[in-house]
Amino acid sequence: MAGPAGSRGARAATLSDVAKLAGVSVATASKALNGRDHVHSRTRARVLEAAAQLSFSPNSLAQSLLAGRSGTVGLLTSDLVGRFSLPILMGAEDAFGAGQVSVFLCDARGDAIRERHHVQALVSRRVDGLIVVGSSTDPRPALADGVDVPVVYAYAPSEAAGDLSIVPDNIGAGRMAIEHLLACGRSRIAHISGDRDYSAARDRVAGAAGALEEAGLEPVGEVAYGTWTEGWGRAAAGLLLDRSPEVDAVLCGSDQVARGVLDTLRDRGRRVPEDVAVMGFDNWEVVATGSRPQLTSVDMNLEELGRTAARALFDAIDDEPARGVRTMDCRVVIRGSTAPLS
Hints:
Layout: H1 15-22, H2 26-34, H3 41-53, H4 58-65, E1 72-77, H5 85-96, E2 102-107, H6 112-124, E3 130-133, E4 151-154, E5 164-168, H7 170-183, E6 189-192, H8 199-214, H9 230-243, E7 249-252, H10 255-267, E8 277-281, H11 285-288, E9 296-299, H12 302-317, E10 324-328, E11 331-333
Parallel strand pairs: 1-2, 1-3, 3-4, 4-5, 5-10, 6-7, 7-8, 8-9
Antiparallel strand pairs: 9-11
Helix pairs in contact: 1-2, 1-3, 5-12, 7-8, 9-10
């Protein structure tokens, strides 16, 4: 074999060999080969050329990154059966790669004592790092100081400023939803939310209010807070139509709430989307696609959030830890419940 690895006989090239030949750090070589951001194009090309010269493959990269480590990580959730936790866990596991990293999955079921037990068990197995997935976007206590492996918090941010948390941008999501309704020609927009005690509800309301203000519009009535249920959506929509029959769009705090709103609008003879556009949150496909008409909704990109958390954990394991709260963009999935006014 030519190059730095040639003098070592048949030994496969390592990431360190690639970094040395390219004249960069091991961390930079890892980022370049993984296609991560913040690597200059010329540097990336130099690393790829060095890898080609040394016949260094992606599988070799995974083996090199895990050299001297256990090759295991822990995924700790508070709500394994929850609709938000599962896609995050799936995205994280996908990023770790089949067969490259072993994943221990533990469900604390929202119990602090059970969580401490799981953390101790994972650390005793010498995992290289932990991803802690919350059941809501409300801040949660950090793990105990005795945890001496990298930790990344996903969905629910850690209360400790020194930790790294990956969360959906709920303020941006609220703004995005209003911008979509405005683009559909709607101007008399009401907001029926969920539980005021949830930070996601408050953040979405803040984003929506900011977008309306920038457009020079007032919301129709006050924000209606309640529960995350179809029953609340039906009741709140009834009150809204009694007080403000001129409404031409309703932004709902969740897809379940939106489905209840659709029921009431149908019962009152209001056509969707011709008379009133309706928009939900969370893009729960079984609800959104089962609605009549199908429901436009804001998707929180939870699988990508999980993949991002896994990549961040890899960086931390590779001695490049980050701090603070990192927000992930959401996206609007357009279906039949919103349409431009003719």
